[in-house]
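Hi R.,

As promised on Friday, here is the backbone we talked about, encoded as structure tokens. Could you run it through your design pipeline when you get a chance and send me back a sequence?
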């Protein structure tokens, strides 16, 4: 385990979720690779350049912990099982055309592959890309991994897969998620957070997307706890869970779902810390209150203080004020800060509110720099060190 102390630089800990917009040149390379116009080596060269640029600029923000922006991944959800969003490099026993993970407020959807047989094994662990990114970093790195509850959606909602029961499949994805986290720590991650965007969506009851009305939230919590049961109390301090209402193409999938459908349940997940979308909530006080009420003494609450879907950078003072307000509801010793979500969870993302992914990258780094500065100011004001 790393000896990273998240309080050293900023008093109140601060940490990103994970993704950054891919530069337009990299997005074009993904499309060219899918079309068969460039080789895998050509794509990897573009990924490498984007990772190097991402880490350099991340470090320039003053952030005490950095990430590679998931520049080598198809998406936050599908990196273990496919090389690209179009399905090039799909893992065995999967085919295109599975369930929609989400249908977003702007009408676009994101579809998962479909399980056709067993077993399901990861083609790629987060540690594989982290190991390639670490040599560029001078600061500790965090790593995001996908939750077993997201990959559970690969299994058809009502039709069993012949010769591979849901129970067998779920045991496989729990073990793969455990391996994903362990390997990330082994290669050098200082912290690992589990992306759990499907949590709030699980109570949406959207007739266009039947799994959201199937009452799956308690089962999702249980799957995540089966993973965490494989780690010691000490290890779990460095393992987080991220919740958000989605953040793709500057649109959301579950912002209109009452947050309290999720929060009391979410803190039953035995993680050491939570990265909680909050700045884009219309009414923040009740959410701070719920977080304070339902989180446990052994759970750090990293509240979202920047909105990756908006091109307006929140000022450091605005961020400081939000943290000070949150401390009225959440014990200041258990407060941390984060961005509401990754800045671009899918490899192809035009970032329409921003005008271009390249401009969205500029804005993302400004937001991160302001988050770090605002957090430092709030720690001074609250006397947290
Ligand atoms: Zn998110």
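Update: got your reply. Pasting your designed sequence below so it's all in one thread:
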């Amino acid at each position: 385990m790393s000896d990273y102390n998240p309080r050293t630089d900023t008093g109140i800990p601060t940490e990103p979720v994970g993704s950054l917009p891919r530069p337009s040149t990299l997005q074009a390379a993904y499309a060219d690779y899918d079309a068969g116009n460039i080789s895998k080596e050509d794509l990897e060269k573009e990924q490498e350049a984007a990772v190097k640029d991402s880490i350099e600029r991340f470090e320039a923000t003053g952030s005490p912990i950095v990430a590679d922006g998931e520049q080598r991944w198809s998406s936050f959800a599908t990196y273990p099982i496919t090389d690209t969003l179009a399905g090039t490099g799909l893992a065995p026993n999967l085919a295109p055309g599975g369930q929609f993970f989400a249908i977003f407020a702007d009408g676009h959807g994101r579809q998962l592959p479909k399980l056709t047989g067993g077993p399901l094994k990861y083609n790629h662990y987060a540690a594989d890309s982290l190991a390639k990114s670490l040599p560029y970093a001078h600061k500790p790195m965090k790593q995001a991994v996908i939750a077993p509850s997201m990959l559970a959606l690969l299994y058809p909602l009502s039709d069993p897969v012949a010769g591979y029961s849901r129970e067998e499949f779920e045991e496989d994805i729990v073990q793969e998620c455990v391996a994903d986290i362990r390997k990330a720590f082994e290669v050098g991650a200082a912290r690992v957070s589990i992306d759990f965007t499907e949590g709030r969506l699980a109570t949406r009851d959207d007739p266009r997307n039947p799994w959201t009305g199937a009452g799956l939230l308690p089962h999702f919590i249980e799957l995540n706890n089966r993973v965490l049961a494989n780690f010691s109390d000490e290890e779990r301090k460095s393992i987080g869970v991220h919740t958000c209402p989605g953040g793709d193409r500057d649109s959301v999938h579950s912002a209109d779902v009452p947050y309290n459908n999720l929060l009391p349940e979410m803190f039953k997940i035995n993680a050491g810390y939570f990265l909680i979308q909050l700045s884009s909530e219309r009414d923040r006080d009740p959410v701070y209150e719920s977080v304070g009420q339902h989180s446990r003494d052994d759970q750090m609450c990293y509240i979202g203080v920047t909105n990756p879907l908006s091109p307006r950078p929140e000022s450091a003072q605005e961020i400081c004020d939000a943290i000070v307000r949150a401390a009225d509801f959440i014990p200041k010793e258990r407060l941390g800060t984060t961005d509401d979500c990754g800045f671009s969870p899918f490899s192809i993302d035009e970032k329409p509110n921003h005008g271009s992914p390249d401009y969205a990258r500029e804005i993302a780094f400004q937001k991160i720099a302001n988050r770090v500065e605002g957090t430092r100011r709030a720690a001074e004001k609250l006397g947290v060190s």
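One thing I noticed while checking it: The pocket of zinc ion is lined by residues 17, 197, 242, 244, 247, 341-342 (CB under 6 Å).

Thanks again,
M.
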